[in-house]
């Protein structure tokens, strides 16, 4: 287990460290704690406090040919999936955009069900 200074250097928040300590409790005996419990504490804390952003790691450029090149549609995206009070962010949609380009998407290019809402 790293030191408290090491945890802070790695980006662990004070609230997540306190939550971890509260979860494992205190004991007189030497015991081992799984690192997954520490990681769970930081995930819980960051899930509640950090803003959401979108990114495409392996972009695949797509052009919709039957969509007007100059037309821009704006969509609202929730800043937090479980907290509606967190507000929304405006996303622009155009004829040229990027999709997540993974090998599973390329393996069935004919039926494009990955790129539609509810597709599997």
Structural summary, described in words:
Helices cover 31% and strands 18% of the residues. It is of the alpha+beta class and 120 residues long. The chain has two domains: 4-49, Orthogonal Bundle (Glutamyl-tRNA Synthetase, domain 2), CATH 1.10.1160.10; 59-108, no CATH class. The strands form two sheets. It has a two-stranded antiparallel sheet. Helix 2 crosses helix 3 (35-49). The radius of gyration is 22 Å and the shape is elongated. The mean pLDDT is 81.
Layout of helices and strands:
Layout lengths: L3 H6 L4 H11 L10 H15 L9 E5 L9 E6 L9 E6 L2 E5 L2 H5 L13
Antiparallel strand pairs: 1-4, 2-3
Helix pairs in contact: 2-3
Order of SSEs: HHHEEEEH
Shape: elongated
Q: Main sheet, how many strands, which sense, barrel?
A: 2 strands, antiparallel
Q: How many beta-strand runs?
A: 4
Tally of individual helices = 4
Given the helix and strand composition, which structural class is it? alpha+beta
What fraction strand? Answer: 15-25%
Any idea what the radius of gyration is?
A: 22 Å
Which ranges are low-confidence, i.e. pLDDT below 50, for 5 or more consecutive residues? Answer: none
The averaged pLDDT comes out at 81
Query: Which range best describes the helical content: under 10%, 10-25%, 25-40%, 40-55%, 55-70% or over 70%?
Result: 25-40%
Strand arrangement within the widest β-sheet reads 1-4
How many structural domains? 2
Distance N to C terminus? 41 Å
């Amino acid at each position: 287990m790293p030191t408290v200074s090491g945890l802070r250097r790695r980006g662990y928040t004070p609230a997540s460290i306190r939550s971890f300590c509260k979860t494992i409790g205190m004991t007189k005996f030497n015991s081992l704690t799984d690192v997954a419990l520490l990681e769970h504490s930081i995930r819980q804390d960051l899930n509640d406090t950090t803003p959401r952003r979108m990114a495409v790691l392996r972009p695949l450029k797509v052009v919709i040919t039957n969509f007007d090149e100059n037309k821009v549609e704006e969509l609202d995206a929730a800043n937090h999936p479980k907290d509606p009070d967190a507000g929304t962010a405006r996303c622009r949609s155009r004829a040229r955009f990027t999709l997540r380009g993974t090998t599973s998407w390329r393996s069935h290019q004919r039926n494009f069900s990955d790129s539609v809402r509810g597709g599997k």
